[in-house]
Amino acid sequence: MKRRDMLTWLGVASIPPILFAIWNTRSHSIATVSKLDKSKAAWKDILPPERYRILFEEQTEPAGSSPLTDEKRSGTYICAACFLPLFSSDTKFDSGTGWPSFYQPIDASHIGTKDDYKLFYRRTEYHCDRCGGHQGHVFNDGPEPTGKRYCNNGLALRFVPAEQELPKLRG
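The chain above was modelled as a monomer; its predicted structure follows.
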């Protein structure tokens, strides 16, 4: 193969990985949830400071600090900001990490994802797709049937026991 042909082939072969990398850095979600148009300032006015920092400044609470990690009752875990149902207690498991963990959301359209390089390697951050509130990170080391571990900040969630009615979505 001539050098010129080889350089052309290498140039063409590099296009798909570059396009994949560009697409992969965008936020991914299935658009079936109505987005909530609320400013960060408005969220700051209604949320306690520690919840605001986690949900809208993408902070992380200390491992083992959330009582939701040990919650064993049946119920629904909702976004602490907009009250969108995110996880069922049926999909919660003890991951041993110190954070509430789930192997699947209630509805895939309730979760959006984006790449996170804050620790200098790629992780997948997930958030409430309605309000954009940061929930945690998803990993591929969870139990069957999905193999996923949605590792959630407890302060980003509220637990609603099965015998209670879910609150109306916050507007």
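Residues 3-13 form the longest helix (11 residues).
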